[in-house]
Each structure stands twice: as C-alpha cells, then as structure tokens.
Amino acid sequence: MALPLEERTIVVTGSGRGIGSEVAKLAGKLGANVIVNDPGVNVDGSGQDEGPAATIAKEITDAGGTAVANFDSVATEEGGENMIRQAIDTYGRLDGVIHVAGILRDRMIFNMSEQEWDDVVAVHLTGYFNVAKPASVLMRQQRYGRLVGFSSGSGLRGNTGQANYGAAKSGIAGMNRCLARDLGRYGVTANTIAPGAATRMTQTIPDAARELRAQGGIEAAARSESGVTSLRAASYVAPMVVYLMTDQAWDVNGHTFNVSGGQVGLSHEIQPLRQISKPGRWTFEELRDLVPSQLMGGLRNPAPPPSDLDLPGRPVDAS
Amino acid sequence: MGVLDGRVAVVTGSGRGIGRGIALLYAAEGAKVIVNDPGVAVDGSGHDEGPAAQVVREIKEAGGEATANFDSVAEFSGGENLIRQAVDTYGRIDILVNPAGILRDRMIFNMAHQEWDDVIAVHLKGHFNTIKPVSVLMRQQRFGRIINFSSTSGLIGNTGQVNYGAAKAGIAGLTRVVSKDLGRYGVTVNAISPGAATRMTATVPDAARELRSQAGVQGAAGNQQPVASPFTRREPDDVAPMALFLASDDAWDINGQIFLTSGGSVGLMQHPTAERTVFKDGHWDMSELDDAVHTVLLKDKLNPAPARDDFELIGRDIPAKPLA
Predict the structure, then answer these.
(1) B51: distance to nearest CA of chain A, Å?
(2) Does an H or E element contain B194, and which?
(3) What ipTM was reported for this prediction?
C-alpha cells in the first residue's frame, strides 16, 4: 500500500535536533524524500557541526526511508537556494518546505544589541523568505506545493526579553497569511504552526527568571501546552506538521495552528474585538472618554507599573 | 493649554501622510516635535529634505515648536541620531511614533531579495532602531509612550505584500513583547493599524484589487466596507486623534494593544488565541488529524485564495494517496 507522502520531496530546515528532527523522521516514515537541513549551530547561532543533520538522515535511511543531509544556513539567500536545489538535484522535485530552524538571543529591549536583533531576524524571518522564495517559483509552476512556517506564542501573545524573536515569529505568521493569498490559487498552501514543546531552545530560559517575572505581574506568553511534562515532547508537534504535507490537506491554507502535546488548536483570524465609530474625526476628549470605557473594559495592562511609581495620569490613591 | 504641554515627541516619516497629521496635531497640543523624514519616494529611493522642512515650517507658523531630522530609520545610527537630536534640542524624549514606511509590492515568486531586505529594514528594523535607544531613556525616566504602526496586510494578509506583511505582523509581535519589557517602568507600547488613503496606498492600482477579488482572493481590505459613506472616510489626518490619545497622560495604563484606526472608527484588535481546539491523550495519526481538521477545526472556514476551478488538483479532482 502506498504511503501518504510517497514520491514527495520535503525540505525541513533545522531538522538535526528538536521539533525539526521529529518532523523529518515522521515525514521519512510516511514515505517522503527528506532533505534534513541543519548547520548544527548552538542555540545562539554560533559554531557549526554536521553531526546532527547527518545523524537524523541516517536514522531515516536506517528505518527504510529516504533522506539526505544538508548543512547550509537558512539565514543566507544562497543557503536557501542551495537546499531547494539539492532537493531537485537529488530527488527530481520539491513538494514541501517546512521552516523550523531557529536560534535565540534573549535580552530586554533596553539591553539588546543590533547584532542580537539582526541574527535572530535573519534566521527566523528572512530565513523563511530565503527558502519560500525559490520554492514558490517551482511550486507555482507545478501547481502543487506545501509551505509551513513556525511561529510562537512569544510573538503572537508576547513574552519579555524576546523583542527580536517575538517580532520574527509574529512576522512569520503574517508572512504565511500573505503567502497563502499569493499562492493559493496555484494549488499551493501556506500555513503556520505555533508549537509548544520542551527542547534545547526552551531550556535557555531559567525557571527562576520566569518566576521573577510572574511575581512582577508580567504575563508570559500563553502556556497553551499540557501541564503533563511528557506531553511536552517535541514528537507531539510532528503529526500536525506532516499532515499539512498530505494530499488531504489540499484546501487547508492561510491558517495558524497551535500545537502542543496532544492539543491542536486553530488560531483566531485577527479581527477587531470591539469598535467605536462616528461619521467624522474623533476629538481627544471623545477618545479619552470612550476608549477606556468602550474598548478597554476588562483588559489589563500585561506589565503594570508598580503601585508606588508616581505616574502622570494615574489617579492618586485617596488612602 | 494642550494635551501634550511640555512633552517632546519624535515622529518618524512625518514629512507626509499619516505621520504628518500626527506631527501637526501633537504640536498644536503643545508638544515639541522632531519631524523625521528623509523624503524618499514610496519605494525608498531618493532623498528630499523638503517634506520634513515644510511640516516644521507649518508647525512654527502656527506658533508651535518643531525641528526637522532627515535620518533614515533603516540605519541603526539613524535611529540613535534621531533620539539624540530630541534630547539635545529639547532636553528629553517622552513620545516615539513610528509611521515611517516604504513599499515594494511583488508576488512572492517574483520578489527580489533586495525588495525583501529594503522593506524589512525600514519597517521592522526601523522600529527596533528607534525603540532600542528610546527605551533606555524611557526606562530611566520611568515614563514614555511608544506608538508603532502595523497593518492589516500583516494581521489579516494581502496578496503581493509578503515583505510588507511580514514586517507589519512582526511589528505587532514586537509591540506585544516590548510592552511587557517596559510596562513596569511606566512606559506604554501600543500599535496602530491604520486605514487611510495616502501616497502609499495609491501605489496599489484599483484594477489589481478588482482582479484579485474576482479570482476569489481575499485582500486585507476584504472586511472593509466598500461603499463611501461618512463612516468609511479614509483621510490620513483621521488617524492622528488616536495617536494623540495614546500619547496622553490619560492613556497611562493602556499597554500592549493594537488599534485598528481608520476614518471615524477605532477598533481594539484581538490577539491571536486558539478559537477551536482538539485534544488527544497521545500522538495523533494522519487520518485522525484529517478528520479533526475538516470536521472541527476548519468547519465553515474559507480558503483565503482558493485554487482555480480549472486546475486538476490532487485531493480535489485527483484521488489523494491514502493516509496511513
């Protein structure tokens, strides 16, 4: 019996470790030819090691699947083109691109260097462009293709100390909404996964820092994941990603799925929650009265200033 | 007595369009304004000190205080210069507004790397380049207002704008994060997703919009009312009052939000959360997911750009490979 991804060729960036490796292995198991891309860098993007990608490619072939390793960096235009070309040169076609690769350089905005911003945006956001651009040319011509980009609650909901990562991850979700509209009519789909999993990347945030922020009243990105630790394994994210590669998902386009443990959620389209309108230009006084009462009711400041901070505008406590 | 008496504001890209309206209103309400604009064309090319200088002249003629700045926010040093000029000229910085932007629209399969880089540099990196230096000062003084500019092109999606949409959605994420980095220091960070007829939107030909909509492709404007009425006015100056309110002392506790602002409408945008969720106590297999996706998660949801009817598509007209 034919496997669901037989004769399909899929590039998975950052698949030497973590979620990417689980996606690559499952795609290989279900019959796909897999390009296992991973330059084997550290979480901060430094270093280089061909071991992780080579190991996963070998695991796939040892299990009877088809895979080759690729060590290019998705952060460069040439790197992205190379891995797409390798898919064509090796297997004769390209059906899917899954961009999981990512690095972290967490820092509060007031301490973040330009390099820390640039490096993170280059791998995540421009990295997705670097593979999606060459892939889209081929997929449009063959009237078939699957693109998946990885977003994060850090960008969709916000998380302290991750301005670079949050911007890039929210940008990927926006990019997929645009890619879906550019490519949908050519039979190509583009979707977003916002994963929750315990991997090498999430280990970089010390629990102590998380607790400190929580005590300060600062909301963390919604922890949609299961409370059961075992359900935070990266392998739980893989099935939904791989499902988006199947023929059955031909009409699943432009959506964001939150995947963590055994949960798969469909994210809301971003729409106005509440609205005020008048046939003309607002005045300051009208907005001062209506915005807090009509728009902001029940919503709290995600990082409220401490009560002993003297703030212009804040009502002085009578006590 | 003005709403912003004694405040110092930097408004990027305020030589024209939405930024100009904000700079003029801020100055009329008593703020000292740095009017930043390198005076480039919509695609980012060229340089012209005229637009920023003209806005400064208008402000001064009306009795306000303003200084022109011609730095590009696409450069890290440009952002630093801009903030430094506010402090050097007026002694402090209270408000940063980020409307500066360019467009290089192109379908993804035709987009040059340069078109991607340039748009990301001005919008997304441009926001970082101004926010980073200003956040250091605002944190120290325990007060500040940062007002960013997002767009429905990124929040909802639009054809031919992968670069712009990615940058604008990225700015929404940046806003959410930085609001949490700075909120406890008395600083608020919000974003406006504006609707206005400006030089930038005039670059999208109506014919192109119509063509896409005939093909069933949802544009970002898909959920805007098409008929002209007092409720669908799109004047660039209409965005300024909300930018004024967010900069005022009254808005001290409004933080981390995105406001859809167009004509006489102000909407509070939703942050994306799960609308529907399925759960299994274990790993899903492909056929279970196929069932869950089609019968629960995507029930009654539309493909924003459905494949053309005359294409033979695997899964639709051509039998799909069976799911394991």
Answers:
(1) 24
(2) strand B187-195
(3) 0.93
